[in-house]
Design a protein that fits this description.
Distance between the termini: 45 Å
Mean pLDDT: 88
Radius of gyration: 21 Å
Shape: globular
Order of helices and strands: EEHEEEEEHHEEH
Number of strands: 9
Helix content: 10-25%
Structural class: alpha/beta
Largest sheet: 4 strands, parallel
Strand order of the largest sheet: 3-2-1-7
Strand content: 15-25%
Low-confidence stretches: 1-9, 16-25
Length: about 250
Amino acid sequence: FFFNDTATTEIYTEQIVGSVRCVQETDIKVDYYLHTPTVFLVPWYNDKMEPILQEKQVNLRFKYTLREVKGKERIAVFENLDTNTLHEENFDLLHAVPPMHAPESIRKSPLVDQNGYVQVDQGTLQSQKYPNVWALGDCCNVPTSKTAAAIFSQTPVMVKHLVEAENKQEMSDIRYTGYTSCPLFTGDHKLLLCEFLYGGKVDETFVIGQGKPRRIFYWMKRYFFPFAYFQLMPRGVWFGRKGFINPAN
């Protein structure tokens, strides 16, 4: 958030998936409300992010959720998830991300689990209810962050098994391991590149060390990743962290 010449501006940001990026001025108060008990669920990266936010004087409010916004009064109503009590906060700027879910056509189908996502085997991505169904990406219930990086790693696994099923072949041993990546912008043209597997196991690609924000990751995210997403992936020649190498071959 960028503000100039403001007088006691109060900013509340709630349930952001990804990052908080701000320039802290002496007359700006920033509160970050999270429904989780930590900033990042992977301890290794959480230990890196919390000091950065504290250095920027971002007030961390854990285990809260936004229940109501009174727009005309500029009031946000938050619920404390431990005590189930409500309290109101005045704001000048509110950044809130609504709850995410699968499309209605999927949520109301017999494919889903109790949370409305397609119930799949977390390794093969095959439906646990219908053997002729596979799912990947944001609509399935694999326990990992729903990112483009995750989809790039899931795609060759699913395609491999689909082809095997079509040809009535035995399913190969290739499995999706939960790999995902979350790029966290920290300001000053720097980015913390988080990579991990199921269970929050850190699994980093680069040897230069990803435990601190770096400018090279910022420039990769700004220029190279979009090119790979929109020019290479649709052509079937980009496989995320594996680059041009198809891990299913």
